[in-house]
Amino acid sequence: MKRNFLLSVVLTLVMVVAIPLAIAEISDESKPDSKQPAADKKESKAEKSDIEHLKYGDVVKRILFDESANNSPQGPHALRCYDIFIDFDSGRTYPGPDRNEASKFDSFEEWLRIKRIDAQAAPGRMYQGFMGYEMLVLPTKNWVWDYLGKVHSSEEDSPEHQKHFYEFQMDELKKGRPGSHVPIRAKGVLPETFLFRTREGSIGILQVTGFNVEHMQNSIYHKKSVEFRYKVVERLEYKD
Predict the structure, then answer these.
(1) Are 116 and 88 in contact (CB under 8 A)?
(2) Of 12, 69, 118, 146, which alpha carbon lies 20 to 30 A from 94's?
(3) pLDDT at position 201, please?
(4) CA dist 196 to 18, 36, 199, 234, Å?
(5) Count of CA atoms in the C-beta half-sphere (13 A) of 108
């Protein structure tokens, strides 16, 4: 009955790990599903006013595709065995849906929205990071992780440049449109840092901090864990 949903899940997982994905720019932000709790439908204050200052919550550290945490009898290479999805607001992580769970939803996108999933680990060579869903993501500089409107020590940027760069990116987070599928690539020197806004309007900052050792077997590039940390804004202060 839900075979189309299951096929969508499988194709999406395969594309994220191994196949280039066409990035679709959506013209309007997706509305939360009607089955979501009322809290999911909150409008982001970032849409209404210029951000003067961000107050972040606690730093959350996670590992997705963590083979050391696998206790499933299905084997170490079954996607269902690993937590590969994350909701940045709650910090909850999820494996891919099994057949029973998939049968409850009409599409893979509906499952993502009901679960409030923001991103999926994509540790293969193509992306080496994450695939974000209905998010706006901006690559940024590592000093932004600790920047809260005060000058941060940086060899590459002056205090004046830091201020302008920070304000420009906050403005982009407010005005930019999310993508339906957004690659978050960390192919340079780690850590790599990204600012993001989720479909529910939450603003946060993400750092990809490491991967486990990659390996090839029978010409197949096998997955590896993605280590990262992030923090989400818990309070916004605005100019009058």
Answers:
(1) no
(2) 146
(3) 92
(4) 24, 22, 10, 14
(5) 19
